Amino acid sequence: MRRTSALILIGNEILSGRTRDENIQFLAKNLGELGIPLREVRVIPDVRETIIKTVTEIRAAYDEVFTTGGIGPTHDDITAPCVAEAFGVPWEIHPPTFALLEDYFRKTEFNAARQRMAKLPRGATPIRNPVSLAPGFTIGNVHVLAGVPRIMRAMFEELAPTLRPGEPVFSLTWHVTSLYEGALAEGLEAIQAQYPDLDIGSYPFHRGDGRYGVALVAKGQDRDAVTQAAAHIHDLIEKKGGTPQQGEPPP
Amino acid sequence: MRRTSALILIGNEILSGRTRDENIQFLAKNLGELGIPLREVRVIPDVRETIIKTVTEIRAAYDEVFTTGGIGPTHDDITAPCVAEAFGVPWEIHPPTFALLEDYFRKTEFNAARQRMAKLPRGATPIRNPVSLAPGFTIGNVHVLAGVPRIMRAMFEELAPTLRPGEPVFSLTWHVTSLYEGALAEGLEAIQAQYPDLDIGSYPFHRGDGRYGVALVAKGQDRDAVTQAAAHIHDLIEKKGGTPQQGEPPP
């Protein structure tokens, strides 16, 4: 059975260009490997109505939904109360998390802002944060992760074993330098037509040093079909005068 | 007057994790500087119905809409016909672009796949591509750019002077090391309450080498208010025992 996922990045800092996203690719690769491929990503601002509306819409459309960002102690960290509202449940102190943070912040100050991080939507399961302690959480099919990449990745490692995997996706890539997509397009379309259940992708590259070429990818759940389509791609490149090279082009 | 923009990244390669996005941050920064801040980003697959639905929805919600990806010569490059369909116009040969490409590909082969790149939605204005010739285009408030970062940036430079700028946004940043957000949160909320028209943002960082801290950003269209709020941020950091440092933290 085909399982799908979507990702919501919550944060003005991505939309302003202040921060370059480092989370999409990590989650895309890992979810692909789990057989729960990412089908959509949205980047939205720290605006209450927008978060609630987006979570409500996206969680109805995909099997698993991940959010990153907006779960810290400051006034602009509003993801958790918004997710609670999207699920129609209260956002309240989660006693085991409160005890954990109270103990941790004993040395400094367990103030009101930090106590906020001990609040979860009612019914949510915390996701352990081995880096900075304040947890993410899962409620229904929505998994709420930190925005800081190191913390996000650590939370995802905690979460991954609890996710139900889907069927794995196989992929084979050939690339060729000094040949343009336009020379390969017709042959590639024929291969796509022969294997309608696969995704046959064509990705041109142009390097700063003048190198150019195309990477051609065959991808799908039928391993034999992927192998056969990749062999056709290899032959197509040779027929057009190129030298097929396995895998992705060097950076 | 406040102007807004949105970005649609069209491409399976971002959703599969094959390619790390390099376009969001460039467009976010440049659109911010033009006073047309990015309010939403969507990453969607090369699926006809999804592209048409997303373009239709997003172009009604924002002043300017940018798309990247899916305008090459191969079967998976379906952005242009989908945008034509979203606007209810035919996708047809654009004679000046056809002449340009015919001349250019005379040396190799101006085949059917390459002729596809000479087709635009009726009424669209081409956006010059100084890198690999095949143009992007503007139709209504939708600007269709290449996905390859070098080509996208070159097209954007061509396009930028034609965009109507909005009011500029000013921003000042202080950062502090060895202090957590939780210590600053309450004071920061008070500053946000004092300047409700500004965006006061708090962005923790955790480096691999153990350095940690917070960057605090004041942003808005009223330059005096931004300056005053930044001064309060400076004083708050000192009051909490930190040493305020101007600008973003080093990587």
From TrEMBL, chains A, B:
Q: Which SUPFAM superfamilies match?
A: Molybdenum cofactor biosynthesis proteins (SSF53218)
List, alphabetically, the CDD domains matched: cinA
Q: Where is the MoaB/Mog domain?
A: 6-166
Gene3D superfamilies linked to this entry: MoaB/Mog-like domain
Source organism superkingdom: Bacteria
Which InterPro entries does the record cross-reference, listed alphabetically?
Answer: CinA, FLAD1_M, MoaB/Mog-like_dom_sf, MoaB/Mog_dom
Q: Which PANTHER family does the UniProt record give?
A: NICOTINAMIDE-NUCLEOTIDE AMIDOHYDROLASE PNCC, NMN AMIDOHYDROLASE-LIKE PROTEIN YFAY
Q: Identify this protein by name.
A: Competence/damage-inducible protein A
Taxonomy of the source species: Bacteria, Pseudomonadati, Pseudomonadota, Alphaproteobacteria, Acetobacterales
